Amino acid sequence: MTIHSISTKRATRSAEARVAAQDWGALVGDLNSYGCAVMPALLSPEECAEIAALYPHEEHFRSHVVMARHGFGKGEYRYFRYPLPDLIGGLRTALYPRLAGVANDWNERMGVAQRYPADHATFLQLCHENFQTRPTPLLLQYGPGDFNCLHQDLYGDLAFPLQVAILLSQPGEDFTGGEFVLTEQRPRMQSRAEVVPLRRGDAVIFAVHNRPVQGTKDHYRVNLRHGVSRLRSGKRHTVGIIFHDAK
């Protein structure tokens, strides 16, 4: 069975079940403490292979970006077109409500007025009213020597403050190097780096831009960027789930 032979309804139910099975108390605790959290085995090895195999087929994608042409690093990625593959769309829908509560709590602690609706369809409607209509989930491909510079995926005025990346390849077998890296730029302090170990099928939730940190008197915000270290050998595929659409 391929990813496209699963009905949208079945894929959504499957996504909701596997998202609900995660330890959300621990995940939210890690997000609040470190700005990232790992969901183990969100996808099966077979699902990882099926998604990675979509990469050469242009009919699934709206655009193709070669990073070196834009100074983003080395490697390439493709943005999916609508309709998204059922499993990716289902995960995007199922993950959003779990993360909207975290996003609203963070904004309240940072004194940011923006609040996010409880369901993803309503949030996407807000994006589209803001002329952000292009889908942002993407499939990334790295080869030897490739890397992704530290960056933030904002894409427009309305940006959801958390996103998810799922590793589709097996470290040590399919590739070496290529670690997911997150950095925090703290006011009047040196930056902190976080290297997140992942296995095939694991997903990392992470802050896109800012997150709150408790200071001596009140919360303050830190600025985050994410990237991928240099691939030493092999090939690495990742799917990124970004919850806001782009202009």
TrEMBL record:
<dbReference type="Pfam" id="PF09859">
    <property type="entry name" value="Oxygenase-NA"/>
</dbReference>
<feature type="domain" description="Fe2OG dioxygenase">
    <location>
        <begin position="133"/>
        <end position="246"/>
    </location>
</feature>
<protein>
    <submittedName>
        <fullName>2OG-Fe(II) oxygenase</fullName>
    </submittedName>
</protein>
<comment type="similarity">
    <text>Belongs to the iron/ascorbate-dependent oxidoreductase family.</text>
</comment>
<keyword id="KW-0408">Iron</keyword>
<dbReference type="InterPro" id="IPR018655">
    <property type="entry name" value="DUF2086"/>
</dbReference>
<keyword id="KW-0479">Metal-binding</keyword>
<dbReference type="InterPro" id="IPR005123">
    <property type="entry name" value="Oxoglu/Fe-dep_dioxygenase_dom"/>
</dbReference>
<keyword id="KW-0560">Oxidoreductase</keyword>
